[in-house]
Every structure is written in C-alpha cells, then in structure tokens.
Amino acid sequence: MSQFQSEGHRLVEHSDGRVELADETEIKSSPFYNHDLAPVKVVDRNWSTYSYIALWFAMSACIPTYMMSSGLIANGMNAWQSIFTILLGNTIVLLPILLNSHPGTKYGIPFPVFARAAYGTMGSNLPALMRAIVACGWFGIQAWIGGQAFNTMFGALIGINVWRALLGGPYFDYMGTEWLSFALFWGLNILIVFRGMDVLKKVESLAAPFVLIMTFVLLVWTVNLAHGVGDLLHEKSKFATFGEFWAVFIPSLTGMIGFWATLSLNMPDFTRFGHSQKEQTIGQVIALPTAMAIFSAMGVMITSAAVVIYPTVAMDQLWDPVKLLGRLGADQPAVVAIAMFTVALATLSVNVAANVVSPANDFANAFPRFITFKVGGLITGLVGVLMQPWRLIADPHGYIFVWLQGYSGGLGSIAGVLIADYWILRKTKLELADLYLPGGAYQYRSGWNFVAVLATIAGCALAWVGAFVPTLKPLYDYGWFVGFFVSMAVYVALSLPGQKQKS
C-alpha cells in the first residue's frame, strides 16, 4: 500500500492497483456528491469471481435470452446459425464491457461518475440519461414478462377461470388480473431496490444456480414427453445464398451486441464492488458468452421438443416459456406454479441488476442533492411503465431490428468516447477527488466537455442515418460498430491537440 498526493488530494493506492481517497471530507460538501455515488472504500469492495459469474448467469437466465433465437429463426436462420450469432455477439460485446469495468474496480466509482472524466461534471448527464432511458424500457419489458409469470402462477394456484374473472376485463386488451400481476411484480422490483445492493447480491447468488437447474429440468421434461428433441435443430435455413444470410446476420449481430450494450457502459456500477481486477475479469469472461449460449440453446431445444408435443399450436406460443409451461402443466397446477416462480425469479434477478441499478445512479447523478439511489430506482420504474412495454415485445422483428438495433448505435457512440478517454488519452489515470468537485480537472466549460458531446453526436448521426436514408442502411445495420469507432476517432482527433498543448 502506498500514499501519494494528487492535485492536492491524498490518495491511497493498494498493492493490487485499487485506489481510494484518504479523506473524503472535501468531496462530501460538493453539489456533485451523494452517498450512493461516493467511491466505495476498498474494505467494502468484496465481490468475488463467483459474484460476477452468478451476476451474469442470473442476468442471462431471462425470457428475452430464451426467446432470442426465435426472432433470428423467424427471420430465416436455422437453429445453429442463431446460436452462433448469439455467442459471437456476446463475445464481441465482452471487450467493451471489460474495458469499462476497469475504472469501477480501480477507483470504486459508478458509471455516471466515471463518465464525468470524459464528458464533464455536468456533461456526464448526457450519456447517463441516454443509458437510463434505454434501461427504463428494458425495466418495463422485464416487469411485464415477470407479471405474466405471476399471472400464470396465480391462475394455477387459484384456478385459471376463477383468477381471470376476479377483476373482470379486458382493460386495454388485457384482463384485470394481468394488470394486477404486473403491478405486484413491479412492486417487488422496487422493494429490492429499496433494500440496497447487499440484498441484490444475495438474490443474484441464489437465483443463478436455481434458475439454471430448473431450466435444465424443463428441458429434460419436454424432451422426455416428445421422445427426443424434435426436428427444429435439423431444419435448414431459409437463405439460398450467402448474400441473403449476410443481409440478416449483420443486423442480427448488431442486435445481439445491443442486448448488452447497456451493461458495456455501466459495469462500473457493479465492478466498483470488485475484490480485484483479476476476479471481476475472470468471472465475466467465464460467464457472459457461456450463459447466453447455454440459455439460448436450451430455448431452441425446448421449443423443438414442444413442436412435437403440440404440432398444431402456433410457433409464437411455443417460443414463449410462460405460455408453453401453462400448456405442459395444464393438469398439474403445482408444476405450473413452481415453473412460474422460477420464471419470475429469473426475471426479477435480471431486471433489478441490469435495468434498475444503472438508471437509479444515472438519475441520482443529474440531481445528486435531491435524488438518491432509491428515488432514482422509483423514477426508473415509473418511466418503464409509461413506455408501454407490452407494445415493445409484441413483435419479435421489431424487438430485435428496431428496439435492440436502434439504441445500440447510440450506446456504442458513448462507449467509444469513454474507452478512448480512459485508455488512450488518460492511460487509466483519473483524479478521483476531482470527479466530485466543481472547478476541478473535469470542469471543462461550465461542466461540459463539448468535444465528447460532438464525438457522441457524430457517432449517433452516422449510426442512425441509415434508418432514414435507404442507400445508407448498412450504416444502421452495423450501428453499434459505426457509433463506437466514429465517436472514438472523432474524440481522439479533437482531444490530442489540447493534450499536446498541456504537455
């Protein structure tokens, strides 16, 4: 352990490279400080390799992952092409995730505070709120899915006809009990947020093995009923040429990257609790691609077997595990109830971890003196409802090619700026105290680094222009990559002259 002076602030650097402030008195009086955004003390950074493995398995074991292959297969891929696309996309997105995880572990800071280094103490609200809006949409989607699981579980326990008639309906195309189930699941998410990160860690650690085991049990059950895995695994793709495949593969790959493009920005929200860089890195490398491939493959195999069991049922019904389990256990309410509890637990674990922690911090960053982590979580939940998630997931094509692909370009643009600033320009060295102080190294112009803003706009513009100009559609198809590399190049090009003048 060593101590050194940095711009008037005494830092303690531990032998493993992790850094903390010797005294936080000065930053506590700053308008950019609150307890939830404060750097985590080294003594409290106790997440192990297993913590991150459990986190990723718990976040991956969700209905959107299970159903991911369905959208790809519906657009012409065969089962193996869809699984490969998912595996490749998640392997690629692992790189920016690891790069942006590093400052969290080193300095104990969350994503919006890390963003202050590149965007400024005020400008950090731009990437934070862009990330927060996406998370709100995801929160709503997952809360709706969890609500559907609750609805099926209660129907199995009480009797489906009695349960459906309890509150009447339909209201806005859904029965009253469906809205009630949605509200109950939504409230459970908010409750965990109010209990804090320690409770979240426990939920993730318990959910990961339980959900994995129960999904495997479902696989064995359906394969046994079907006397095999069915023919879906052996079906050929609908593409006659490589060109036809490529035209679908690239936007699909971008969509897969977009699936975790959110976490590629805000992993510092979790790695700030990491016991070491080695532990968080190993945990993430092991878990992310593996978990996504496993759960997607299980979804394909279960659906393939379900086609044999229910040959006359529409495919969209069989791809939805909530509806499928309702059919499989129609005469076994206890089985349905246990299965739906599993679905609800899986959805709860991913929703709180992936879609509440970050926007709660992001909203807190905008008004540190007025919005706490808990209040930010509540805002996330309310905005998620207003975004009408039941409409977002109604169409698999829209889900992958509009929702996922659309926002991936924007988040890729932010990632390009953050990685360029931290790794290329600053060489991983930050003035920790100045991240919380007005007038410090990250004040720029009135708290805004307009170079970072311009670079982000440039990345977004080129990533999204193809959505409006048909001849430039390839830019949209490659949205995340275009946004990432354009914003990185622009940021470095515009920042280097200023750096040379300072030196």
Briefly say what this structure is.
With 503 residues, this protein is mostly helical. It has a three-stranded antiparallel beta sheet, with no helix packed on it.
How does this model look, in words?
The protein is mainly α and 503 residues long. It has a single domain (2-502), classed as Hydantoin permease, CATH 1.10.4160. The protein contains 23 helices and 3 strands. The protein has a 3-stranded antiparallel beta sheet with strand order 1-2-3, with no helix packed on it. Strand 2 and strand 3 form a beta hairpin. Helix 5 crosses helix 20 (396-425). It is globular, with a radius of gyration of 23 Å. The two termini are 29 Å apart.
Number of strands: 3
Query: Which regions have little confidence, pLDDT < 50, spanning 5+ residues?
Result: none
Helical stretch count? 23
**If classified by CATH, what would the architecture be?**
Orthogonal Bundle
- Distance between termini? 29 Å
Report helical residue fraction.
over 70%
Structural class of the secondary elements? mainly alpha
CATH superfamily: Hydantoin permease
- Strand line-up of the largest beta sheet: 1-2-3
Mean pLDDT: 88
